[in-house]
Amino acid sequence: xxxxxxxxxxDYDFNGAGVHTALPRREVFSGxxxxxxxxxxxxxxxxxxxxxxxxRTIKMSKSGEGHFWVGGPGEEAFNVCLGLxxxxxxxxxxxxxxxHYRNAGVLVAMGMPMLDHVRQMAMTATDxxxxxxxxxxxxxxxxxxxxxxxxxxxVQYTMAPGTAMMxxxxxxxxxxxxxxxxxxxxxxxxxxxxxxxxRPDAELPVLLTVTxxxxxxxxxxxxxxxxxxxxxxGEVFGIPGETFDGNDVVATxxxxxxxxxxxxRLRKPYLLEARVSRLHGHSSSSGAARVPNExxxxxxxxxxxxxxxxxxxxxxxxxxxxxxEEADRAVEIAMSEERPTAADVERFTFAPSPVDAxxxxxxxxxxx
Length: 368
What we know:
With 368 residues, this protein is an alpha/beta fold. It has one domain: Rossmann fold (3-Layer(aba) Sandwich), CATH 3.40.50. The protein contains nine helices and nine strands. It has helices at 37-63, 76-85, 104-110, 114-122, 156-170, 188-197, 249-266, 297-307, 313-335; strands at residues 27-30, 33-36, 96-98, 176-181, 206-212, 215-216, 219-220, 241-245, 270-275. The protein starts with 26 loop residues before the first strand and ends in a 33-residue tail after the last helix.
């Protein structure tokens, strides 16, 4: 491979709209697996934007611009690769997402503006996910089948078989994806998902995914889990799966692709465990300081792209700069927007009901 790059900066779009279509045709390898350079650049940009968003919201929690922060710096490779492979849409023909509070990268990859995430961190009345009622990262997007995220640990695993049952009856190749952490797999909800998605002759297209960062808030996983791999939990239920390096973008992309393809084709469950890093602790409750000596999927991928001559350092720096500017602009906008008031407490609690004779079209269902 020549030392000099066979292209110049004109091959790229520097205006923040993405990478130009006329890109060098290169492959990025991990073992025997690879991804095209074009796809890698798309993933890289989404990962950088997600990291900039997480870092800016951490800053919000420390500066008084926001309140409680929880997120997933260190899980960008998994989240972005998942978000880019989904069949996005509304209804059983499309994928359903049962996420937890560390999945900002999934939504960013699906097309969520940074502003939507920042509004929830700032608890503005314009927060489209919860109107300022919920913590950051607790999404709800009906038009993308993103089910409401809750802080109640791992209940998403018991919800996924419900949407998967509907999808199997409907037909097509829609999959219900449940995402949780390693500590949450100790909850009964995880086991319930294994049972309900694997019943003989009634298997369901559920992709169970576990992002294992080695900790349950402050409890090391090694003190709680006797099994070597969480993915082995599916074996007794006849659920195939695998454990992979969630800091390796190429390996992560293909593992998710295999899992989704299995669920789409066979309409049966699959279990994935991604070994990921936790770069800023669990939440702002522990200070959210940068954790040293943890592998950083973003830095590793950037070095890989530079070494493969898919990107050069100057362009990488520009992508980072644009992402941080985008995050700063989102915060500036959100901080100027209205906040919920006491009068909003009873609003949007229940959906309006035109057949309710006492309170027609009333959002609260409460007497006045």
